[in-house]
Every structure is written in structure tokens, then in C-alpha cells.
């Protein structure tokens, strides 16, 4: 088959012409695709022939729109039993961001320039087609939306609805040329991670009642907020001084296991946490499932309450505030970042100086790569200068 020119006349007698790429797909079915320019038809024809030989080609007529692919992807997520909060987040990405800009585009027509244009419009706040106003998304939100788009296309690819995942191809190319992470800064102590001095002030400001026990546990275990909210007394071993992470509670108060197998872990507790939890157990409200940090009615504590009524007032009391008088650290995840740094820091600096693999296990990361991507720069380069000097002497004499 080949590329050929097609001419015809409209009902009004107007002459029209186009270029047609004519080929046979891997199923032996004849396919046609029309282009305005010959070079576009030639490029498509060459690419389609390669994809047909590789068995990865999907014709336009066999593809679906981005909106249809999004609906299929969300069905897959529900069928796989993903958490309600996760599905809600994916649904919002599709409904509020992906569908308005790309919903009517066929997956087979997506291109790298189209994805780049989509990212730029999200970042700049340009309105979607048919909308009067737009709003800018943060760089972090743009990355999350594009990640959802990539996962959605991957689901469609497995269904045979598209040959390539153009978003993954684009990201690979960006990684090769060092573009992917150029805007992603490293976590900094004193900016993203509370310093040891700030944590000392924070711990001193904690009340032995009220929010003190849950915040102290967060500091010295690095548990996610959902894991703190789902922690049960059955998971706390006072005899050995260990805490077992076996359950989490999502934002809809639905209890379930940690997100991954690696999330199920056992953590040693420092004496201050063991002592605090012993005292807390004596006055802890009763809960049907034995929660360590329930509300007064025995239900899982609300995440917003922990932050607004516990975390923020404690930072202010500790004097760890910015020029505006507001806390430097406004989320519970900052305490998890401190815990990670505490595991990594040298013993002479008050840390545990643990090897990366142990740090990964205690944080519950699914891979060592995740741990190193976030915290590699915190690991001390012990004796680097002395080692270089010794190597120089050995080489040069």
C-alpha cells in the first residue's frame, strides 16, 4: 500500500484535494487516513508500517477519545479496589483538568507537542475550550495531573486502544536530557525539614494531654497521618517497645491495610514514646476497634483537627514561626521528614546513622529508589576528604 493524492468536488462544485495513507494493519484489515500535506501522510505511513510489524499499531477508528479512556481507567481503578480517596483524586484530575482540554481528542492523535501545550495551559491558567475563565495550577498539581494522564493512557494501551503511551515517551526523553527534575528542589533542613533544635522546642511545647501523645508519636515514628489515625492498641507492644503498622484510616474514615506490603512494618519506640503512650492509655477514650488516638466518641480522629488544633498551635507555642507569625511547618508530613533525617543523621549529631536499606524499611517505602530520591542528599559523606587524600597518595606516591 502507499500514499496517494485524492481529489474530489463538493456539492457546490468546489475542487478539493488531500493525501491518503493507505495501509494494512496487523489484523489484515485495510486502513485509510487522510492528511492535508504529503509529508505528513508519508511520515504517518512509515510510522504505521513499523508499528504494524511490531504489532503495536492502533488505527484511529479502533481508538477512543481521551474522555472515554478516562472513564474506562476509573472503572479499572474501582475494580482493582483502590482506596476511595485515591479514586476521588483521579476522578477530579480527569473531570476538572484532563477532559476539559483533551477530552475530545482520540488517543491515537495525541502527540508530544499536544502534551506540552496541555501542561503549559494548566500552568498558565488558560481557559479550556468552551470556558470563559481559567485558573493556574501549581507545578506540583500539573505533575500529578500529567501522571494521571500517563496512567490512564497506559490502561488504554493494555486494552489495545492505543499503540504508544506518548506521555511516558515524553518523560523518558526529558530524563535523558535532564529536564524532568530541573524544577524539583531538594528537601532542606530548616525549610522543609524541621531542624533538631526546632524539634526540641516542639517536643518541649507538647502538652502531656490532648494532642501531645499523637504528635510525639508522629515525631519519633514518622507514621503517615492515616497510619496514626488507624493505629490500635493491639499494634503497640509495651513489653518490647515496638509499634506494628498494620492498619490505616483514610479521609472517609474507612479502615484498611497500608497502601503497600512495605507499609506493613515494625518500628522500635524510644522510651519517651513508650512512657507517653502508657499514660495516654489510662485516659484514652474507648473505641470499638481499640484505636490509640480516637475522638471523644471513639471514632477516628479527623486529620484537619490534628493539624489545626494540635500541630499548628504547638509550633506557635514552640516559637517556630516565620516572619508572618505563622508556623514554618504547616503539615504533619514535615514531622515524617524529620523522622527520616533523624534516622539518617550521624550519631554525634543526635541521629541514628542507619544504612539506606533500614531507613527505607522504617519509612515503609516500596523501593530503595524512592528513599534515595527524597533523602540521598542527607546521608553524610563520611571521611570523603580523607579518602580522596589517601587515594591520591596511593596513586601518585
Describe this structure in words.
This protein is mostly helical and 397 residues long. The protein has 3 domains: 3-57, no CATH class; 66-176, DNA polymerase, domain 1 (Orthogonal Bundle), CATH 1.10.150; 196-378, Orthogonal Bundle (hpI Integrase, Chain A), CATH 1.10.443.10. It has 15 helices and 8 strands. The chain has helices at residues 38-54, 66-79, 84-102, 112-124, 139-158, 166-176, 196-205, 212-221, 225-230, 271-283, 303-318, 333-344, 356-363, 368-375, 384-396, and strands spanning 3-9, 15-24, 30-35, 236-237, 242-245, 248-249, 255-256, 265-268. The strands form 3 sheets. A 3-stranded antiparallel beta sheet has the order 1-2-3, with helices on one face. It has a 3-stranded antiparallel beta sheet with strand order 4-5-8, with no helix packed on it. A two-stranded antiparallel sheet has the order 6-7. The chain is elongated, with a radius of gyration of 28 Å. The chain starts with a strand and ends with a helix.
Question: Secondary-structure map with pairings?
Answer:
Elements: E1 3-9, E2 15-24, E3 30-35, H1 38-54, H2 66-79, H3 84-102, H4 112-124, H5 139-158, H6 166-176, H7 196-205, H8 212-221, H9 225-230, E4 236-237, E5 242-245, E6 248-249, E7 255-256, E8 265-268, H10 271-283, H11 303-318, H12 333-344, H13 356-363, H14 368-375, H15 384-396
Antiparallel strand pairs: 1-2, 2-3, 4-5, 5-8, 6-7
Helix pairs in contact: 2-3, 2-5, 3-5, 7-11, 8-10, 8-12, 13-14
Helix/strand structural class: mainly alpha
The total of helices stands at 15
Query: How confident is the prediction overall: mean pLDDT?
Result: 88
CATH class of the largest domain: Mainly Alpha
CATH fold call of the largest domain: hpI Integrase, Chain A
The SSE string, one letter per element, is: EEEHHHHHHHHHEEEEEHHHHHH
Tally of distinct domains = 3
| Rg, Å, rounded | 28 Å
Residue windows where pLDDT falls under 50 for at least 5 positions:
179-183
Judging by the overall fold, what is the CATH architecture of the largest domain?
Orthogonal Bundle
Strand neighbour order, sheet with most strands = 1-2-3
| Helical percentage | 40-55%
Strand percentage lies at 5-15%
CATH H-level homologous superfamily name of the largest domain = Intergrase catalytic core
From the N-terminal CA to the C-terminal CA, the straight-line distance is 71 Å
Q: How many runs of DSSP E, i.e. beta strands?
A: 8
Globally, the shape reads: elongated
Biggest sheet: strands, sense, closure? 3 strands, antiparallel
